[in-house]
Amino acid sequence: MKEVLADVDRWRSEGKRVALARVVGTEGSSPRLPGATMVVSEAGEVAGSVSGGCVEGAVVTEALQVLSGDGAPRLCRFGYSDDEAFAVGLTCGGTIRVLVEPLDW
Question: Which residue among 25, 38, 58, 64 has the highest number of C-beta atoms inside a 10 angstrom radius?
Fold first, then answer.
């Protein structure tokens, strides 16, 4: 989380809402461990990483929906079997669970 705090502070000082996405669980192989964090501003700016690239775009989409909707947190599950992952060019298999919530502090 520390690596994204400067971005959060800057975006908040510019009046932008921010969503926090954090890996809260993994099954099988995963590129990032629980606690890995990404933040997304309502303008689509991104800092940090929850997957090293495999599902970053989908997490950004979820974050923007949280910010534009009712603000309810979402628990998202992303995953592929190892065979499916390699078939589509991903280097990681397994599953990650990501909690996406607005930062309203």
Answer: 38
Strand order in the sheet with 37-41: 46-48, 37-41, 18-27, 94-102, 74-80
Query: How far is the C-alpha of 62 from the C-alpha of 46, rounded, in Å?
Result: 13
- Based on its alpha-carbon atoms, the radius of gyration of the chain, rounded to whole angstroms, reads 14
**pTM of this structure:** 0.84
How many C-beta neighbours within 10 Å does residue 66 have?
22
Q: Closest Cα partner for 25 from 17, 35, 16?
A: 35
42 burial (CB, 10 Å; 0-12 / 13-18 / 19+) is middle
**Type of residue numbered 66:** V
Look at residues 80, 91, 98 and name the one whose alpha carbon lies nearest to residue 39: 98
Q: What is the pLDDT of residues 51-103, one digit of tens each?
A: 877 789 999 999 999 999 888 999 999 876 555 444 444 456 678 899 999 99
